[in-house]
Design brief:
elongated; 3-stranded antiparallel sheet
């Protein structure tokens, strides 16, 4: 996965352009109309996205239409997936710690609550 994908995604304008292209191909003028930026500025952002292979350009007469290319985004998602597992495990650990602290405030420990749940019919 080229590192320029991350550079391209780092800019909020480019992320908004990608969001707009999820709806389908758009002409550069249509895309520029969604921003308070000049058409040349939008064209520069689209060029960065094109170089990162996140969009492709299709000339139609005098207009250029841009299409979302999802493959690099899938590669980013695949790369990020292990980190998702890491953060889920960290959040579970935090939840367990907070649960233990709440029980301690109530004057119970984890062994007591385990015994209570075993003694209580379902």
């Amino acid at each position: 996965m080229p590192s320029d994908v991350f550079s391209a995604l780092a800019n909020p304008v480019r992320r908004r352009l990608l969001d707009a292209l999820r709806e389908g191909p758009r002409a550069v003028n249509d895309l520029a109309g969604r921003f308070e930026l000049s058409r040349p500025a939008i064209s520069e952002h689209l060029q960065v996205l094109r170089q990162a292979r996140l969009v492709r350009e299709e000339p139609r007469g005098r207009q250029r239409f841009y299409h979302l290319e999802p493959t690099p985004l899938a590669e980013v998602s695949e790369w990020l997936h292990p980190f998702e597992h890491y953060w889920r495990a960290r959040m579970r650990s935090l939840r367990d710690l907070l649960d233990e602290e709440e029980l301690a405030e109530q004057g119970l420990d984890a062994n007591q609550t385990d015994q209570i749940s075993k003694d209580t019919p379902p």
